Hints:
This protein is α/β, with parallel strands linked by helices. The chain is about 40% helix and about 15% strand. Strands 1-7-6-5-4-2-3 form a seven-stranded mixed sheet, with helices on both faces. Helix 7 links the parallel strand 2 (about 140-150) and strand 3.
Amino acid sequence: MQYAVRGQVVMKADAMAAEGREILYTNIGNPQAVEQPPITYYRQVMALCDLPAQCGVDHPNVHELFPKDVIERANAMRAAIGKAGTGAYTHSQGVLEFRKHVAKYIEERDGHKSYAGNIFLTNGASTAIELVLTTLISCDMDGVMIPIPQYPIYSALIAKLGGRQVPYFLDEGNNWAVSLEELEKRLGDAQEEQLTVKALALINPGNPTGQVYTQEDLAVICEFCSKHGIVLLADEVYQRNIYADNKQFLSAKKVGLEVSQECANNLQVRILRTCCWSALPLLCGTAMKQS
Length: 291
């Protein structure tokens, strides 16, 4: 198992830093490490949720220390969590009220019904990815299709769990898109090796490639997974990071439900997503959605 962005690359950088070289660590998504300030509102809400009530929301001087909207949000979140506060275990899927907020966001984004009962809150996207792959991989003949280039957590976790990588290659000359011919070829190669392909991971917007998939790109992937009974793992953690005026983020769920009735029926229990939720400062910030 190899994970270069936390392994050899970092070890080399550490050695250079020990020699007196100035190193800027950009190997992982860590903006505050390069002096991007945190969003004050989130930090304030988290502080009031974590502090004992008498030191925070119920303190006589709380309105002198925190803005009104922060106090209101903290009180609402504390009510949703329960009297024990953030130190207690929650429901295995996460606090119900927070999952309702996530479901509402997904509905407003996609225009399709979303259910809080199908939302899982996890401690970051990496935890969600590992949870899903652990569920899917049962032996060394189980394969997971992953894009190349890819964020190395997929290859590392597949190796850790004893599965097999089935790479499919993105076309740099076509804005890092993937073709149906490429997917079918790689699936065929895996089947010739007697592998059972359990899932396909797509990363949109791409990491590290940065592409934003079009509706046509996503339709190809959704229909491919529907046709072959493959679980679609839609890694959409960067959905807010769209910088080109002519690009628009579309979720795999939305496209999968709209491309055709057959595809919608087949994918309804197969689309799993990992998304960062900057709107949920408390507990984890990641949702995994089974549509």
